[in-house]
C-alpha cells in the first residue's frame, strides 16, 4: 500500500505524473482507467502513473483534496497542472497535457 510520502516522492522525482483516484464500486472509474492509461502511454513516454483506491486510502484522497471519483491529477515538474473529476474525456486530458509536456521534454 502506498503512503502520501511515497506519492509525494514519485511526484518530486518524475517530470510528469498522473495520479488516478478511483474505487472498486465505481463503474466509470473502471471503464475510464484502461483507456486513459493507454492514451498516456501512447502519447507521453515520460509519464509515471499512480493509482489510488479511495476506499482504502482515504488519507491520501484527503491530502490531495479529492472528494469525487474518478479524479485525475496531473503533475508536471512537481506541480499540480491539471485536475479533472467525474466528467472527463481521454482526448480532453491528452489535449490539455500535450503542449506543456512537449515543451518540457524538447
Count of helical stretches: 4
What best-fitting shape do the alpha-carbon axes yield? globular
> Strand order within the widest sheet?
2-1-3-4
CATH superfamily: Glutaredoxin
CATH topology: the name is Glutaredoxin
Assembly status: single chain
How many domains in all? 1
Query: In this structure, how is the largest beta sheet organized?
Result: 4 strands, mixed
Instruction: Using the CA coordinates, give the radius of gyration.
Output: 13 Å
Distance between the termini: 34 Å
Supply the CATH class: Alpha Beta
Strand content: 25-35%
Mean pLDDT value: 95
Count of beta strands: 4
What structural class should be given to the helix and strand makeup? alpha+beta
CATH architecture: 3-Layer(aba) Sandwich
Series of secondary-structure elements, N-terminal to C-terminal: HEHEHEEH
Summarize the amount of helix as a percent range: 40-55%
Q: Regions with pLDDT < 50 over 5+ consecutive residues?
A: none
Protein name: Thioredoxin family protein
Organism: Candidatus Sulfurimonas marisnigri
GO molecular function, one term: protein-disulfide reductase activity
GO cellular component, one term: cytosol
Amino acid at each position: 500500500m502506498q503512503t502520501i510520502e511515497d506519492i509525494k516522492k514519485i511526484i518530486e522525482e518524475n517530470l510528469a505524473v498522473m495520479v488516478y483516484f478511483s474505487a472498486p464500486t465505481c463503474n466509470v472509474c473502471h471503464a475510464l482507467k484502461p483507456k486513459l492509461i493507454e492514451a498516456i502511454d501512447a502519447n507521453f513516454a515520460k509519464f509515471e502513473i499512480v493509482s489510488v483506491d479511495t476506499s482504502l486510502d482515504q488519507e491520501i484522497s484527503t491530502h490531495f483534496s479529492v472528494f469525487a471519483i474518478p479524479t485525475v491529477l496531473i503533475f508536471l515538474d512537481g506541480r499540480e497542472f491539471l485536475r479533472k473529476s467525474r466528467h472527463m474525456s481521454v482526448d480532453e486530458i491528452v489535449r490539455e497535457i500535450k503542449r506543456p509536456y512537449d515543451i518540457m521534454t524538447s
